[in-house]
C-alpha cells in the first residue's frame, strides 16, 4: 500500500487565506508521506500556481459524470485536467446526502474521472443508523459494488478508497482505531475478491472523520489504514502537516 494524506477543504477558503495555507504546505517541502489538497473549483488555478513546483499534489472535490454538454453549473474531468489535478474526490457523504449522488451516479463519476486519467478518491461509509442496525459492511459493500459493476475491476483498482463513517465527519467523534481497522480490513477483503489479492494489497485505503493531530498516529498504525482524508484539520497548516507526519512514522 502507498501511504497518502489528503486535505478536503470543502467549501472553505478565500484567495488570501489559501495563499497562506498553500504557502505553508509548499514551505514544508517533501514529506516522508505524500500529501495532497482537494480545493474548491475556483481555487484550482491558485493551487496549481502555488504548488506546481512542489511535490504536493492537488485535486477537486467532485466532477460531472458527463464529458461535456448542456449541464449548467457542472465541471468536467477534462476541465480539472486543464489545471493539472491529480485527484478528485467522488461520492463524499455530503454529496451523497445533500446533492443526490446515488451509488449509480458515483460509479458514473468514477468512470468519468478514470477516462481522463484523474485518480478518484472514492468515499464510502455508513450513517449512525446503519451502524446501529448492524449493516455497516453491507452498506460499504453496496457502495463499492456499484463501482465494480459499472466500471470494472481495473477502474476500481485505480481508485484511492476513503472509508468515512458519516457519524464521524465533522462531529469530533472518531471511529476507534479498532472500529476503523475492522471496516478497512473488510474493504480490502472485498477489493481482493474483485481485483485480486496483490492488487488489493497495493491499494490505498484512507480513513476520514474527525482525524486530528492527537488521534492520527493511532489510526494510521492500524494494518489496513494507509492514511487519511482530512476535513477541518486540513485548514490549519500546522495541524495538517502534523497529521502528514503521523502517517509517515
Ligand atoms: P472532518 O471531515 O475531518 O472535518 O471530519 C472529513 C471529510 O469529510 O472528508
Describe the structure using short key phrases:
14% strand; 12 helices; alpha/beta; 8-stranded parallel barrel; binds 2-phosphoglycolic acid; TIM Barrel; 249 residues
CATH class designation: Alpha Beta
Biggest beta sheet summary: 8 strands, parallel, barrel
Going across the biggest sheet, name each strand in turn: 1-2-3-4-5-6-7-8
State the shape: globular
- Under the CATH scheme, the architecture is Alpha-Beta Barrel
The oligomeric state is: single chain
Class computed from helices, strands and strand pairing: alpha/beta
The tally of helices reads 12
**What percent of residues adopt helix (DSSP H or I)?**
40-55%
CATH fold-level name:
TIM Barrel
